[in-house]
Amino acid sequence: MKEKLHPFHISVLVFMIQAGVVVFFLPRMLAQYMGYNGWVAIPLFSVVATFNIFLISIVYRLGDGRSIFQIMEQSLSKLIVYPVYTYLIVVWTLLGCIAAKQYIILFQVFVFPTTPIMYIKLLVDIIAFSLIIKGIYNISKAATVFFWMVIWTILMLTFFIKGFEWVNLTPFFFKESTNVVVGSISIFSSFLGYELVLLLFPYVDSKKGFMKAVYFGNFLTTIVYLSISFVCFGFYSFKQLTKMKFPLVDLLAYIRLPFVERVENIFLALYLVTSLMSITMYIWAATETAKSLIPRANKRWITAILVCCAFVVSWIPNMLSEVELWLKYLGYMALGIAFGLPLMLIAILVIHNGGKKIA
Amino acid sequence: MKWSRGTYNPPGTDNKQEDNKQTDDANVPASLQHTLDNFKDCTDLIHHTFPEINVNLVYFGHLVGSDELFRDVITPLTNVRENEVQALLTRNQYKLTPDSKSLIKGILNGQAAIFHNDKAYLIDIYKPGSRSIEQSETETVITGPHDSFIETATANLSLIRRRVKSSHLKVIKLEVGEVSKSTVYLLYIDGIANMEYVRELTDRINLIEVDAVYDGNMLIQYIDDSPNSVFPLFSTTERVDTAVSKLVAGRIVGILDGSPSVFAAPSSFFEFMASPDDYYQRWSTGTAIRVLRFIALIITLTFTALYVSVTTYHYEMIPEALLLTITESRSKVPFPPIYEALLMEITIELLREAGARLPTKIGQTIGIVGGIVIGQAAVQAGFTSNILIIAVASSAIASFVIPSYVMSASIRLIRFGLIIMAGILGDLGIALGIAYLVVHLSGLTSLNSSYLTPVSPNNFNDWRDVFIRAPFWALTRRPTQSRSPNAVRNRMRK
């Protein structure tokens, strides 16, 4: 029996790719770039992401569930297709490895200042490799378990009901916002990840439920981002929030139980799985693309080579600021893919179908 | 693995000599001389002759029932004349067996061979000695039935038939072991079980190449999907009620002759956390116990590892009041926490293993020696901290809460990996270890169905009988893993 992805798995997968280490500093970014009550911007970004998903759904409908590689290869010359593939492979591989490195640096800063980063990165990459080679169905199964491992942590926000001050949510909206355009792109990057569903077309079980599941996954991310940001904006004052590097980590440090405190250590460790899913899915996407580029190549070897390349490249940026800079530019490129690729595919399909199916 | 006359042949290399001999036997007409030649030096073979009626009788005395032998064979043969023997042997309990191979196989299976006028007949009077049906020692329950399977497959079949009085209960008979020729019965309920699973399991058993299989737990290692995994992929039980519940749930149950462990497939990881007790108590109590078992699973996996992690890297996680107690208890210990923890964990495992091998009375002594003498002395000598003793003991107790012994042993082994990871990378090490565990579990299948069902693929309906034990009115559907054609309970096809 051929295993297919159920809508629930797709929602979970989308959420797990989107959510990651960014939750730890998203409230700060919102405060810095969007100003007072920056959390209100989250639904706006979510709407943009939803529109992007709508573009993907058009591709899915017009393409009749065909793989995007089939769509591209049947209409475009290899001279155009191959550079596009190469671009996708490079961006997705780099995004996967740098996102994982960002998490590891963050963990190292808080917990293991003397442990070599690349040693931890190696362990993470080995786990990611062993997951990628199991295929998308098993990746989604692992994602579902990881999802249940992390989603309950959102309940921890109830600890802050007592410290929540409505006065911190001033009546001003987006006042003192700076660098809105650049900031918006950075914040929107935290929603990226859903674009990888473009590669899931051949693996889905239910045609009807598929796109709904993607919307739901994005909605779930929005709810989680919104809850965390809202609590942070209500718990900290605006000025505090702009000056904190990782507001959520500091927030979690407030939780004290009779037998344990400083639980942020546990949560930081637990959020490894979200970073693991990001690296896994981005490199899986790169592997799928590479397989289309070199159809004869062994998938296992492609994955091994890409993971090794990712590991070597992640050696270059050393500091958190460097990693953030890399991520900023990679975010721009991924944004280009998220909007550009569906638009290109729609154009191809419209030309190829002669506009028959659009209506 | 194939065996012939004491010579081991590696897997994949068929023993042609054995095959040729079997082919020859199949072609050789059944004869007394050939049979006796085959059983040469088998002193336990009994050979009776009835010269006045020209009949020879051959059988293994310990495999047949003496009542059946006298009633069905000896008495009728002594009461007939030679010209009446042929008529007697036409009765349908006597099976004419033309070839030597079937004849020898029949004798080995507890049938008596009757030779008359160059013809051979078999009569089934199989009744091997067996122990009586007793309570299972490995799967005890407080309430509920106490009978359990024994080593005789036919007795086990009767135990199941007594509980499933349905013609839909089907039994497939297979054979395993080149030398042992053990019988395996595959049971399923027609109309409830998925026939794809039945075919798959039959194929897998037919493909086994081994000299002998001694136990159901051994057999499943030949037929499960990932023999290298630390986890048991098919569940085994000695309890009749459990086996019947698996059948009714649409799973396939396998009985190996000579083993009291009956296996069921497909199985999921979470199935190993259920005990029949859950169903015999009120649903709220059953649910509480089941939740407790999942807590026990988390404790046994992570408690000692967390101790190592916190006392090695994350002292800041300990509240001030507790910090003094922990530092005081650790102040005398000269080893890093990881050595201390591994030392105690290994000691606990030694005690468990020693206790399992010794007779019950001496086993209790081991418990006292281990628990009081070693535990107390180790703390006083400054070898280990008393907080660690609590952590290790809690983990050990929690591991025994898992109802399946095989699963409990697997979890205990994994715990060592997590302790080592915690010693190397603290909380992150534990997270990495658990992540790897999840990745491994995600790749596992049981009869090609996901081992993590119903969490992944997700099915909330099944959660009612996995994480809790919902009231019976709410348990209306069979588990999705069974892929039953008749998913709704109480709706049997006629």
Please explain how this structure is put together:
Chain A is mainly alpha-helical and 359 residues long. Chain A has helices at residues 7-18, 26-34, 41-63, 68-75, 78-110, 117-132, 136-151, 180-189, 207-235, 238-243, 247-252, 264-270, 272-293, 299-313, 320-353. Chain A has one domain: Amino acid/polyamine transporter I, CATH 1.20.1740.10. Chain A is globular and about 60 Å long. Chain B is an alpha+beta fold and 494 residues long. Chain B is 48% helix and 13% strand. Chain B is built from 17 helices and 14 strands. Chain B has helices at residues 16-27, 32-38, 66-78, 82-88, 100-108, 153-163, 195-206, 216-223, 240-248, 277-280, 283-312, 320-331, 337-357, 360-380, 386-401, 405-443, 460-463, and strands at residues 2-4, 7-9, 45-50, 55-60, 95-96, 111-116, 119-124, 169-176, 182-189, 235-237, 252-256, 262-265, 445-446, 449-450. Chain B has a 5-stranded antiparallel β-sheet, with helices on both faces. Chain B has a 5-stranded antiparallel β-sheet with strand order 8-9-11-12-10, sandwiched between helices. A two-stranded antiparallel sheet of chain B has the order 1-2. The A-B interface holds A 1, 6, 8-9, 12, 107, 111-112, 115, 120, 123-124, 127, 130-131, 134, 138-142, 144-146, 148-149, 256-263, 265-266, 268-270, 272-273, 276 and B 196, 313-314, 316-319, 322, 425-428, 430-432, 434-436, 438-443, 448, 450, 452, 455-458. Chain A: InterPro entries: Spore_GerAB. Chain A: This is GerAB/ArcD/ProY family transporter.
Secondary-structure map:
The complex is a heterodimer of chains A (359) and B (494).
Chain A: H1 7-18, H2 26-34, H3 41-63, H4 68-75, H5 78-110, H6 117-132, H7 136-151, H8 180-189, H9 207-235, H10 238-243, H11 247-252, H12 264-270, H13 272-293, H14 299-313, H15 320-353
Helix pairs in contact in A: 1-7, 1-9, 1-13, 2-8, 2-9, 3-9, 3-15, 4-15, 5-6, 5-13, 5-14, 5-15, 6-13, 6-14, 7-13, 13-14
Chain B: E1 2-4, E2 7-9, H1 16-27, H2 32-38, E3 45-50, E4 55-60, H3 66-78, H4 82-88, E5 95-96, H5 100-108, E6 111-116, E7 119-124, H6 153-163, E8 169-176, E9 182-189, H7 195-206, H8 216-223, E10 235-237, H9 240-248, E11 252-256, E12 262-265, H10 277-280, H11 283-312, H12 320-331, H13 337-357, H14 360-380, H15 386-401, H16 405-443, E13 445-446, E14 449-450, H17 460-463
Antiparallel strand pairs in B: 1-2, 3-4, 4-6, 5-7, 6-7, 8-9, 9-11, 10-12, 11-12, 13-14
Helix pairs in contact in B: 6-9, 11-15, 11-16, 13-14, 13-15, 13-16, 15-16
InterPro entries (chain A): Spore_GerAB
Keywords (chain A): Germination, Membrane, Transmembrane, Transmembrane helix, Transport
Protein name (chain A): GerAB/ArcD/ProY family transporter
